[in-house]
Amino acid sequence: MRLLVDEGVNVVSGSRTITPGLKETGALAVTVDLSTPDGPAHLVEQAVTEFGGIDVLVNNVGVGDTEDIARGALTTLLELPEEAWRHTFELHFYSALRAIRAALPTLVERAGVVVNVSSIAARVPGVGPFDYGVSKAALSALTKVVAGQYGDRGVRALSISPGPVSTGVWTDDDGFIAKLARENGREREEFAAELLAGMGTLTGRVTTPEEVARLIVFAASPNNVTGSEILVDGGVVKQL
């Protein structure tokens, strides 16, 4: 977000809470729950009202609470309740679908671009939080649909798929990785290092948030890339 602002983009963000760090970016921060049926449309309406239209829509809703995502990593298909599936899809898929549908008229008008932040979990949904992986697979497929249906009207759509990223999910003592470590009777740092090695990362480290942000800025810039997925995973995904 900060990189887009630095590029001179007028940015409107939507989240349930407005943190001091978010305020410092210079973006117009809107308090909204994007997992609700009306949340995404409300955010789009605010952006259009404030700036007259939308050129770039970035769907980057986070993984949610640690307990929510951990359920998909610590249970089986029979054990995970339907409500958990519904919550995961509302957060990671339907929030993006609703935002895209609300923004498409102005995106068509301005030949805009949709950037969906997916995950390499979409390629291996059976590993880790499987409900999360399945929801991200749906999001990546949605990118293809938008690109295919609206490309001839000037709208591009891309997926950015990170692997492990050094956010609180990976680094905090109360984050997702820390919870998995406790479940296995391990220290977080040691467990995280072994987990990363087991993934087969070629760079030997996790991706930084800024590296993901730079790819989003590239995707949003004028180019002829659409319907594509860009991986930023340190080489975890090996297949073509």
TrEMBL record:
EC number(s) reported in the record: 1.1.1.-
Is-annotated flag, keyword Acetylation?
A: no
Tell me the GO molecular function terms: oxidoreductase activity
Q: Which InterPro entries does the protein's record reference?
A: NAD(P)-bd_dom_sf, SDR_fam
Please provide the record's keywords in A-Z order.
Answer: Oxidoreductase
Q: At the top level of its lineage, which domain of life is listed?
A: Bacteria
Q: Which family does it belong to?
A: Belongs to the short-chain dehydrogenases/reductases (SDR) family.
- Recorded protein name is SDR family NAD(P)-dependent oxidoreductase
